[in-house]
Amino acid sequence: MAMSRRQLSVEGVDVVVDGAWTVRELFLGIDEGQALALLGGPAAGKSTLLEAIAGRRAPSRGDIRLDGRSLAGRGPAALLELGIAHAGQRPALFPGLDIGQHLRLGHLTSRSQARAAQARVLRLIPELAGRLGQKVEELDRGRARLVDVGRALMSAPWLLLLDEPSLDLDGERLERLARALAEEGIAVLLAERYPYPALRLAERACLMVSGRIVAEGSAAEVAGDSRLVPACTGELSL
């Protein structure tokens, strides 16, 4: 019997940050192996939503479910063990540590399994191969971001929450990463303020404005929505 695909669902979630409603009545779903682009301007609430899914912020209302089971009360470490990894907008790097040490920070089990996980990450992100001993403070912004993504991938997640990688990665580099993840069957929830190349890489897309989803569908459908550009530039609000 074939195994069912994993599924994460966000069900009517509100998130309040510093007294303000940053995410409001939001519904969203992503299945194992999918790529979903979450598009919107810099104040749309995309990062807050990813942080809530990753267990870094608690919803004020609603629920986040994995395969139908509530994730309420679970922190980032517990969600990482359930296969949900988060690579934030600002890479969590520590001066004085090298690339290899940062990658190992993301692994959950034994040293021997960590070596296998590291080999897999270097296959997915070949730009890091041959640089494991390089200190992270010597890296350009693009490689620093790739190290942080590699750390997230060391836990062998089924779902990667990837927050605005185009701030540090050019389109070609991001496209290579996205295709490598797709070949491995890793689902990606890709939050972006720049709609391209996200819409070329994703099967589905959602457009987020003022904490709410205002459009969703295939990438082609959202690409043709007249609200796309004003939403992503922050000119559209609710």
Report what the structure shows.
- This protein is of the alpha/beta class and 238 residues long.
- 33% of the residues lie in helices and 27% in strands.
- It has helices at 46-53, 76-81, 99-105, 111-124, 141-153, 171-183, 195-201, 219-223, 228-232, and strands at residues 7-17, 20-31, 35-39, 61-66, 69-70, 84-87, 159-163, 187-192, 204-209, 212-218.
- The chain has a 6-stranded mixed beta sheet, with helices on both faces. A 4-stranded antiparallel beta sheet has the order 2-1-4-5, covered by helices on one side.
- Helix 3 (99-105) runs parallel beside helix 5 (141-153).
What's the quick description here?
The protein has 238 residues and is α/β, with parallel strands linked by helices.
CA-based gyration radius: 17 Å
Poorly predicted runs are: none
Q: Number of DSSP strands?
A: 10
Mean pLDDT: 93
- Structural class, by secondary structure, is alpha/beta
State the helix count. 9
Percent range for β-strand residues: 25-35%
Which H/E pattern describes the elements?
EEEHEEHEHHHEHEHEEHH
Q: How are the strands of the biggest sheet laid out side by side?
A: 6-7-8-3-9-10
Helical content, roughly? 25-40%
> What is the general shape?
globular
* Largest sheet composition: 6 strands, mixed
Distance between the termini: 47 Å
List the helices and strands and how they pair.
Layout: E1 7-17, E2 20-31, E3 35-39, H1 46-53, E4 61-66, E5 69-70, H2 76-81, E6 84-87, H3 99-105, H4 111-124, H5 141-153, E7 159-163, H6 171-183, E8 187-192, H7 195-201, E9 204-209, E10 212-218, H8 219-223, H9 228-232
Parallel strand pairs: 3-8, 3-9, 6-7, 7-8
Antiparallel strand pairs: 1-2, 1-4, 4-5, 9-10
